[in-house]
Every structure is written in C-alpha cells, then in structure tokens.
Q: What sequence folds into this?
C-alpha cells in the first residue's frame, strides 16, 4: 500500500479528484493553506510537507498548479514517485504568457475578489464539460480563496524551476490549451485530453496511474 497525496490546481479543490480511483492505497487529498505574500512555490511546498507530513517514499500526484508544487515537494522530500497531470515540470515547458506576465504583471491589476468570478472566461480554455462537471468547476472556483488565487498567479509567473525530480511521471493531453504538450518532454500523451481531463478522461488516467503505481 502506498501513501499518496493529491494536490489540485488553481481555482480547484479536492473534489477535482472525484473520478480518480487509486484503489486501496492510503490517499490524502491536500487542501490549500493560506499563503504568506512572500511565499514562492518552493516555500509553499515546504508548508504542505509539514502540514500534511509528506515523508520520504510517499507519492504525490498534482494537477496543473498542483503539479508544479509537486515538483517542488520532490526537490525537498525523497518521493517514491511524483506524478504530474495537465502540468509542467520546469520553466522550460512554460507557455509564452508566463514571460509576458513577468514583464507586464497584468494579474496585479485584477482585484482578488474578482478572480473566483471568472469562470465564464476560464472555462472555454479548460475544455468542454458536461452539465455536472460544469457545475462542479464553477462551484470550486467560487469557493476558492481570493487571497490564495491572487498569490498563486504571481508565484506561478515567477517560478523558475529547471530541475526534473527523480521518479517523475508526466501525463498531458494533446488538446490542453493551458500547457502545450508539444513543449513538454518525456510525457504520456492522452489523445483528446484537455486541461480538465481528470474529469472526462478519468478512465484512461486511472489506467495509467495503476500502471505507474505498480512500477518499482
């Protein structure tokens, strides 16, 4: 049995993993902590390590922002495996708008309280969803902490990781409009997978996860 920690993406919570089946393993969904304004993804990862007792030989699975944080955790703890879904592992895989966001930090102009209300703008980029998934997506966004979202946007834009952790597995979709799979190396590609493929491609992802967890 593995000790597995699940980390969701920006604007999402632990419900993001509703369709993910990890069998009889000891699974802990990680909830967001309120960050300090000076936190980086690395220092925030350290806080999660201490809060959730993420120890050596654990497995961490992260989606989107959660994958970036998982990569930072893997630099501080000797993980058994670190699995990224719809995410990037280094700044070299980051999209062009990360650079633009650093030169022109537009996110600073958006009031934090407005960010959870941007579902109508974000949803088309994340991909098509059925009625239930659309409701869940909007509800997760509405329930998100404005302070956390504001901080996370800045922390992501400033992320400069160039280290690929050991025992890393990467799963991306070829229809992901947030992170272009063509810029991502050494990843398993899910055909038709969007940024929110943990919803509608869960069967394929579960099959891949089952195979990864069996590897020694």
A:
């Amino acid at each position: 049995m593995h000790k597995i920690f699940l980390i969701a993406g920006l604007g999402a919570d632990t419900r993001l993993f509703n369709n993910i089946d990890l069998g009889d393993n000891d699974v802990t969904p990680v909830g967001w902590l309120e960050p300090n304004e000076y936190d980086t993804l690395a220092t925030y990862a350290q806080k999660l390590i201490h809060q959730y007792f993420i120890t050596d030989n654990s497995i961490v699975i992260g989606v989107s922002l959660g994958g970036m944080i998982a990569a930072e955790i893997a630099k501080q703890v000797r993980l058994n495996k670190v699995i990224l879904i719809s995410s990037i592992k280094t700044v070299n895989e980051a999209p062009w708008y990360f650079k633009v966001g650093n030169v022109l930090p537009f996110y600073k102009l958006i009031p934090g309280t407005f960010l959870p209300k941007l579902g109508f703008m974000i949803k088309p980029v994340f991909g098509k969803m059925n009625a239930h998934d659309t409701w869940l997506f909007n509800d997760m966004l509405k329930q998100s902490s404005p302070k956390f979202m504001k901080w996370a946007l800045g922390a992501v834009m400033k992320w400069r990781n160039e280290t690929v952790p050991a025992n890393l597995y990467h799963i991306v979709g070829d229809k992901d409009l947030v992170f272009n799979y063509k810029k991502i190396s050494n990843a398993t590609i899910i055909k038709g997978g969007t940024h929110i493929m943990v919803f509608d491609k869960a069967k394929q992802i579960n099959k891949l996860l089952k195979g990864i967890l069996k590897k020694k």
Notes: Strands lie at 3-7, 26-30, 59-63, 81-85, 168-173, 188-190. The helical segments are 41-52, 65-74, 96-103, 119-126, 131-143, 146-157, 197-200, 202-214.
